[in-house]
Design goal:
CATH superfamily: Beta Polymerase, domain 2
Subunit structure: Interacts with ribosomal protein uL14 (rplN).
CATH topology: Beta Polymerase, domain 2
Mean pLDDT: 94
Family: Belongs to the Iojap/RsfS family.
Subcellular location: Cytoplasm
Strand order of the largest sheet: 3-4-5-2-1-6
CATH architecture: 2-Layer Sandwich
GO molecular function: ribosomal large subunit binding
Radius of gyration: 13 Å
Structural class: alpha+beta
Strand content: 25-35%
InterPro entries: Iojap/RsfS/C7orf30, NT_sf
Number of domains: 1
């Protein structure tokens, strides 16, 4: 199974939104095979708690305007790891330290990476 077209469209919007707020080290993983509830994980790093919150808020705003409201949000108050669930797309916005500690890329290493750079270049 591969990620749905809707999940890939949401990924493009979310990646551009994260990039516009200074999100770093964007990694997208196709988790459609092992997970029944999501197609894509987007992992983003912010350089401070305020930056993590700003990135998450921008992603929620852009996807909401695009017709994909947030189904669930966790961690917004602390700004260390914010999880945004849009259904087919789940976004993890991490502070640098939490991203290293939890290592989601290692946990999901068997899932194929999806190219993010072309999505960002398309918005230029």
């Amino acid at each position: 199974m591969t990620a749905s077209d809707q999940a890939l469209e949401s990924l493009a919007l979310a990646a551009r939104a994260a990039d516009s707020k200074g999100g770093d080290d964007l990694v997208a993983l196709d988790v459609s095979t092992p997970l029944p509830f999501a197609d894509v994980f987007l992992i983003v790093t912010g350089n401070s708690e305020r930056n993590v919150i700003a990135i998450a808020d921008e992603i929620e705003d852009v996807l909401g305007r695009g017709g994909s409201p947030t189904k669930r949000r966790e961690g917004h108050q602390t700004g260390r790891w914010i999880l945004l669930d849009f259904g087919d797309l789940v976004v993890h916005v991490f502070h640098q330290e939490e991203r290293l500690y939890y290592g989601l890329e290692r946990l999901w290493a068997d899932c194929p990476a999806l190219p993010v750079a072309p999505l960002l270049a398309a918005s230029s």
